[in-house]
């Protein structure tokens, strides 16, 4: 198979597009013919070596954890799927090596769910990691109908999905973003506020009694600002602030979850969730996709088309 891979840590320049052996398929896994793969900030951070202290990495390394594709072969104990099934997956394994930026990926069934019929291949590939991150964050702080939720980086890949999931639960959503993305947030059902100095005051102007829950998808002091406006300081979750636990909040490191993926798919097929796409690159141009992700200004998801 052809795959994006690297034999050393580094920046986008270390990525190559070349032939590698087809993956082996374990009994609890299926072989997926990849149609598209989502690009997430964690992908270039892995290639840069930033996760070396917490995850075993083996070279040659194929990056990528998001996938949408078609089942091509089924392991001996993978009865959930048949050849020809269309699936999505957050294919994070215990060690980093055999990722989704390839023509084929072996995916444990615990990482997969049926592809939502209403989403394109590109949209479906952008859903798993970002969607599960948002979904599990919302679950962690138990967002309920009628509550006010503050979402930081609301126009990004995770944030735009978090806004939609919270709105689908009946919450009122206030989302932070630059002014160029305010109309975009309104289209998702959020009330936009500009991030930066004075954010707490701008949030209080919209919610004088405070907010019920806060989702930090950006870091950089968002937890501290959130706790200035939260009714209950413990109802903040972060994917970016390693000190959030010490501050009384919650950290989320997204986990593979078939049931969660299926719930996201059901929201999509009910017309309550879509996946905004910022850019689509051919697989061979993964380095350019990394550079766009590293710039931190994507509106929605970046996807590789295989």
From TrEMBL:
Coiled-coil region: none
Regions crossing the membrane: none
Organism per entry: Streptomyces albospinus
Name of this chain's protein: Oxidoreductase
Gene3D superfamilies, alphabetized: Medium-chain alcohol dehydrogenases, catalytic domain, NAD(P)-binding Rossmann-like Domain
Residue stretches making up the Enoyl reductase (ER) domain: 10-304
